[in-house]
Amino acid sequence: MRIGQGWDRHRLVEGRPCILGGIVFPECGVGPLGHSDGDAVIHAVIDALLGAAALGDIGRHFPDTDERWRDAAGRTLLVETMVLIRNAGWRVGNVDVTVIAELPRIASRADQMADILASVLDVDRGAISIKATRGEGLGPEGRGECVTATAVALLFGSGREEGTR
Ligand code: MG
Questions:
Q1: Residue 34 and residue 3: Cα distance in Å, rounded?
Q2: Distance between CA atoms of residues 90 and 79, nearest Å
Q3: Distance of alpha carbon 156 from alpha carbon 18, whole angstroms
Q4: Is residue 164 pLDDT above 70, yes or no?
Q5: What is the CA(39)–ligand 1 centre distance, in A?
Q6: Distance, CA 64 to ligand 1 centroid (Å)?
Q7: Which CATH number covers residue 59?
């Protein structure tokens, strides 16, 4: 088995849709700025998965210089990442995410995020944890200037493909 960690942060600006963990927060008023949709939650999960498989990082596979990924949905990138993970002979064990943001308010939607992640990662719902905390007025998260997400992922050898582990 392998473990990986991921971290991502996006500036929150007016005029951008607020999408985190594949969920739209229409009431937010600000949204993450990015070449893609800026979904820091899914980006952190992607880097955790790629890290566990030692397959590089999100910028290597989905570079922001590539027009193909402009405004790309985090969910789309996650689906592509799972192809890489499976082809390398891994399956997901569990994923644990912490979101740090004043806005949007994550907690009431965390179960929905977990449902989406469980579906794309092909794991039981109980293998996905989404935790939310606020910045208590401290730092850029606390001032509502950005959203930050961290993720840890465990992979197991699938016993398929070239990488029987
Ligand atoms: Mg990102």
A1: 27
A2: 14
A3: 33
A4: no
A5: 6
A6: 10
A7: 3.30.1330.50
Report the domain count for the chain: 1
The pLDDT assigned to 125 comes to: 97
Enclosing domain of residue 6: 2-157
Mean pLDDT score, 91-106: 96
pLDDT band of residue 159 (cuts 50, 70, 90) is: confident
Distances (CA, A) of 78 to 26, 62, 118, 120, 121: 22, 11, 11, 7, 8
160 CA → ligand 1 middle, Å: 30
Has residue 165 been placed in a domain? no
Separation of 74 CA from ligand 1 center, angstroms? 9
Give domain status of residue 54, yes or no.
yes
Asked if residue 162 belongs to a domain, the reply is: no
Mean pLDDT in residue range 111-126: 97
Q: Is residue 164 part of a domain?
A: no
Query: Separation of 66 CA from ligand 1 center, angstroms?
Result: 14
**46 band by pLDDT with thresholds 50, 70 and 90:** very high
